[in-house]
């Protein structure tokens, strides 16, 4: 464009911030994805921080090692963290297939991009399936938005002697926060899968090959990694702490 | 998106700004993430219950390990480490505001518990 002329006319205006190009050296859509993710990070952090505040202010809390100790469909009791470990593994691996798709996109290797994208989509669907099983399991125990298991069942989720009234109160808080936060995250995974499918179709019909760049794959990649990033925090604060 | 003008693409490819992530590096980051997660599991399932370590000690360890994982995901997978410093700061500095909310609400939660008891 006219940048060459502009440089000759005015040598002083040649810093990244002197206009005419992206000072961040990032394409517009990619930068907007970053800023969207920043706002999304704020949303998730408000949810997680309110969870933290409610949990700090509660005299007791259902023990994660007792609430999450089943592997739905296989083991009923005594397998704490095993199922969520599988979910974490699936999400990390799908993040890796996503980077590999981006990497293949830089080499304009259309076939490889398609296969890695399909891998990512399968990973996302597997994660959603696991989450559905986890939710079903907790629901069958009596947990849901605004509802908790019967008193003698709820007792099993607490370590030590906790008064029944406190169990009911923190049980409710736990149920509401758990389903809201993992639900909001699961909704992100779901939309990520939908966007990944759309992008894969675009790759297949050659939209990006024609455009000469697989930058769109990079942008959905950012979103997908963000979903993985949020899970890392949800995992720590719901299942470990 | 039609707004992806060709000169920005040329700039993108020309500067080779994506040399940062090779396949080898991607797998290295994967092993680091899996390694950190296994350490978390080891603490949660074995070290914690076996040595009766209080959660006051274990929880900060979890949070530090989580932040390490976040660094590797954002820095390498999301490629922020290889973007221009201005770009990285535009994302990282606003995130620091979250620390403010954490401080305010953890502090506030101590008053809530006093109100309840």
Give a short overview.
The complex is a heterodimer of chains A (241) and B (117). With 241 residues, chain A is mainly α. Chain A is built from 9 helices and no strands.
Mean pLDDT of chain A: 91
Mean of residue pLDDT values of chain B:
83
Task: Report the CATH C-level class of chain A.
Answer: Mainly Alpha
Classify the secondary structure makeup of chain A into a structural class. Answer: mainly alpha
Helix content of chain B: over 70%
Cα shape of chain A:
elongated
Radius of gyration of chain A: 23 Å
Tell me the major beta sheet of chain B.
none
Number of domains of chain B: 2
Give the percentage of residues in beta strands of chain B: under 5%
| Gap between N and C termini of chain A | 56 Å
Give an overview of the whole structure.
The complex is a heterodimer of chains A (241) and B (117). Chain A has one domain (60-240): Four Helix Bundle (Hemerythrin (Met), subunit A), CATH 1.20.120. Chain A is elongated, with a radius of gyration of 23 Å. Chain A has nine helices and no strands. Chain A has helices at residues 3-9, 28-56, 64-67, 82-106, 110-141, 151-154, 164-204, 207-211, 215-240. By secondary structure, chain A is mainly α. Helix content of chain A is 72%, strand content 0%. Chain B has 117 residues and is mainly alpha-helical. Chain B folds into two domains: 19-82; 85-117. Chain B is built from five helices and no strands. Chain B is flat, with a radius of gyration of 21 Å.
């Amino acid at each position: 464009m006219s940048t060459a002329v502009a440089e000759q006319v005015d040598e002083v205006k040649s810093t990244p911030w002197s206009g005419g190009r992206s000072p961040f050296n990032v394409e517009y859509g990619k930068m907007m994805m970053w800023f969207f993710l920043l706002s999304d990070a704020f949303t998730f952090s408000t949810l997680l921080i309110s969870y933290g505040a409610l949990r700090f202010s509660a005299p007791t809390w259902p023990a994660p090692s007792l609430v999450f100790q089943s592997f739905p469909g296989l083991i009923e009791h005594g397998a704490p963290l095993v199922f969520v470990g599988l979910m974490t593994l699936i999400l990390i691996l799908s993040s890796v297939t996503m980077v590999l798709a981006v990497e293949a996109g830089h080499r304009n290797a259309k076939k490889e991009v398609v296969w890695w994208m399909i891998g990512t989509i399968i990973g996302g669907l597997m994660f959603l399936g696991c989450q559905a099983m986890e939710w079903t399991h907790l629901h069958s125990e009596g947990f849901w938005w605004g509802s908790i298991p019967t008193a003698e069942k709820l007792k099993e989720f607490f370590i030590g002697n906790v008064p029944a009234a406190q169990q009911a109160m923190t049980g409710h808080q736990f149920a509401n926060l758990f389903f809201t936060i993992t639900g909001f995250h699961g909704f992100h995974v779901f939309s990520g899968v939908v966007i990944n499918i759309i992008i894969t179709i675009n790759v297949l019909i050659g939209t990006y090959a024609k455009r000469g760049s697989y930058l769109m794959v990079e942008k959905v990649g950012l979103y997908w990694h963000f979903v993985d990033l949020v899970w890392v925090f949800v995992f720590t604060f719901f299942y470990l702490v | 998106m039609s707004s992806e003008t060709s000169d920005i693409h040329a700039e993108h490819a020309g500067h080779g700004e994506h040399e940062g992530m090779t396949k080898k590096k991607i797998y290295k980051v994967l092993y680091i993430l899996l390694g950190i997660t296994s350490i978390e599991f080891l603490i949660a399932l074995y070290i914690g219950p076996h040595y009766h370590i209080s959660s006051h000690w274990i929880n900060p360890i979890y949070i530090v390990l989580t932040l390490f994982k976040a660094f590797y995901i954002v820095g390498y997978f999301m490629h922020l480490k290889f973007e221009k410093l201005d770009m990285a700061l535009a994302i990282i500095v606003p995130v620091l505001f979250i620390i403010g909310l954490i401080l305010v609400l953890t502090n506030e939660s101590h008053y809530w518990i006093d109100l309840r008891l």
